């Protein structure tokens, strides 16, 4: 059983590259970053929101919706899958608009960030389904819990993941967003993005993977490397 982790997905062409790589490697778990453009907009929302520029925040959320709908039209052409993804986008965007209306604090900011991470992952999940792969998003915000020392709570994660796998035995590939977790108080949180390889390695350990593939973008091509191996640019 294999786990693959990817770094940076900038545009539609790179989404296709990642989908092709996943089909070639055929992992049981694919760990994906938020799309680069969504990452940039997410940061814009945080800046405008904390400066109480609500109009700018809502405009950015609308841009996210338009971008995701366009990607869906280009990448998910099967009618029902296309409509299901667009319905999901609409629901997610509505939730983010509501969150933007709330008083700005760090927890709400993390919740908005997590919604955008999940939206990005769900889009890739639907792209895989378009290719006939029985893909399912793994909501790491529910299963990945950190303790008071901000280290993964392995026993909790193992039990939570085990139950989820048992409920989804017909799934070919689980697609997990990078970094999302919850803290010991059950609040939305994130493991530092500088520890993405560690995050993927924890998932690989929990799933008892035989192999973990860390795919890093080099000159617009995804190259595989094993943990601990440095990339040559």
Q: What's the story with the biggest beta sheet?
A: 6 strands, mixed
- Helix tally equals 8
Strand percentage: 15-25%
Mean pLDDT equals 87
Say what oligomer this is: single chain
Q: Termini distance? A: 29 Å
> How many runs of DSSP E, i.e. beta strands?
8
Computed structural class: alpha/beta
Report helical residue fraction: 40-55%
Order of strands, main sheet, comes to: 3-4-2-1-7-8
Order of helices and strands: EHEHHHHEHHEEEHEE
The value of Rg in angstroms is 17 Å
What shape does the CA trace take? Answer: globular
Point out poorly predicted stretches: 217-233
Write the layout of secondary structure elements.
Layout: E1 2-6, H1 12-25, E2 29-32, H2 36-50, H3 54-75, H4 79-101, H5 106-130, E3 135-137, H6 140-143, H7 154-167, E4 173-177, E5 180-182, E6 188-190, H8 196-206, E7 211-218, E8 221-225
Parallel strand pairs: 1-2, 1-7, 2-4, 3-4
Antiparallel strand pairs: 5-6, 7-8
What does it look like?
Helices cover 55% and strands 15% of the residues. The chain is of the alpha/beta class. The strands form two sheets. A six-stranded mixed beta sheet has the order 3-4-2-1-7-8. Helix 3 (54-75) packs parallel to helix 5 (106-130). It starts with a strand and ends in an 8-residue tail after the last strand. The model is unreliable at 217-233 (pLDDT under 50).
């Amino acid at each position: 059983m294999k786990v693959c982790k990817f770094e940076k997905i900038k545009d539609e062409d790179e989404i296709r590259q990642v989908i092709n790589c996943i089909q070639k490697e055929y992992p049981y778990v694919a760990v994906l970053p938020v799309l680069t453009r969504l990452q940039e907009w997410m940061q814009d929302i945080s800046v405008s929101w904390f400066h109480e520029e609500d109009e700018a925040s809502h405009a950015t959320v609308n841009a996210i919706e338009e971008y995701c709908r366009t990607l869906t039209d280009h990448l998910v052409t099967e009618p029902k899958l296309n409509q299901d993804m667009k319905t999901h986008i609409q629901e997610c965007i509505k939730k983010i608009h509501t969150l933007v209306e709330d008083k700005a604090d760090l927890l709400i900011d993390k919740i908005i960030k997590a919604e955008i991470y999940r939206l990005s992952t769900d889009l890739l999940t639907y792209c895989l389904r378009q290719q006939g792969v029985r893909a399912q998003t793994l909501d790491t915000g529910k299963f990945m819990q950190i303790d008071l020392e901000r280290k993964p709570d392995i026993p909790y994660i193992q039990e939570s993941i085990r139950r989820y796998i048992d409920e989804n035995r017909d799934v070919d590939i689980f697609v997990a967003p990078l970094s999302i977790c919850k803290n010991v108080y059950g609040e939305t949180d994130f493991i530092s993005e500088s520890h993405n390889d560690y995050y993927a390695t924890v998932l690989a350990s929990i799933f008892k993977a035989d192999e973990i593939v860390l795919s890093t973008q080099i000159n617009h091509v995804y190259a595989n490397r094993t943990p601990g191996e440095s990339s040559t640019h």
